[in-house]
């Protein structure tokens, strides 16, 4: 009895598998279309038996080499893709092993240069203030500058900030254009 039920289960599974395969085939090639193609092939074979036999022989004998070539091509593409990926990842890893120490060194040099510049600026600022106070400060400088429109400006230049324009005048006429 136990053997009987396992045989029945195997038949049911085979029937179920055949049903699923038939549904799959029907979804891509409906039964009407398959019947029409079969009828056309049968009528062609009756009308042109030599040509039909030639085509059938060629298809039958060429199918296996074509399938093997297709399998070889797909396998080669997959293998070469995996090999190229592995090759690329290897060399990217080597490049990272070179890049990380290089970045560490350049970052360290950058910090040292920045510290040197800040130290130089602080030292020079201190020296300037010390020497400036020892010499009694930097005097203000008055400068006359002729502008493009013919006016002359009188400006005071000091260490406190930008030059301050005191007045504009026209030197030929001697009149004062603006007072600040």
Describe it for me?
This protein is of the alpha+beta class. About 70% of the residues lie in helices and about 15% in strands. It is built from 3 helices and 4 strands, in the order H-H-H-E-E-E-E. The protein has helices at about 1-30, 30-45, 50-135, and strands at about 140-145, 150-155, 165-170, 175-180. It has a 4-stranded antiparallel beta sheet with strand order 1-2-3-4, with no helix packed on it. Helix 2 crosses helix 3 (about 50-135). The longest helix is centred in the middle third of the chain and has 86 residues, at about 50-135. The radius of gyration is 48 Å and the shape is elongated. The chain starts with a helix and ends with a strand. The model has no long low-confidence stretch (mean pLDDT about 85).
Set down the secondary structure blueprint.
Layout: H1 2-28, H2 31-47, H3 49-134, E1 141-146, E2 152-157, E3 164-170, E4 175-179
Antiparallel strand pairs: 1-2, 2-3, 3-4
Give the termini separation: 121 Å
Largest sheet: 4 strands, antiparallel
Number of strands: 4
Low confidence ranges: none
Backbone CA Rg? 48 Å
Instruction: Give the fraction of residues assigned to helices.
Output: over 70%
The DSSP helix count reads 3
Element-level helix/strand string: HHHEEEE
Q: Tell me the fraction of residues in β-strands, as a range.
A: 5-15%
| Overall pLDDT level | 84
Shape: elongated
Major sheet: arrangement of strands: 1-2-3-4
Structural class: alpha+beta
